[in-house]
Amino acid sequence: xxxxxxxxxxxxxxxxxxxxxxxxxxxxxxxxxxxxxxxxxxxxxxxxxxxxxxxxxxxxxxxxxxxxxxxxxxxxxxxxxxxxxxxxxxxxxxxxxxxxxxxxxxx
Length: 107
Known about the structure:
The chain is an alpha+beta fold. It has two helices and five strands. A five-stranded antiparallel beta sheet has the order 4-3-2-1-5, covered by helices on one side.
């Protein structure tokens, strides 16, 4: 009889440990679906856009500089930011494409 009591305590302890950890797993799942997954999706979309840059695209850098792509060389993009002003920028510094004013008005 004493053996059954010890067995019942061992099983109850394992079940209560799972019940105690369940809220942590639920919180992690909520964070994953609300924060991590959408962020990963945006990063993949940005990387695809940067990989597809071509001459003539109008872009915005992380530093807030608007420019037009004049050349793409590996990990470097040449931007024309004004007449006779060209800069070399790392592809990783491109934060997005410049949106035309009529598209901004629609939002």
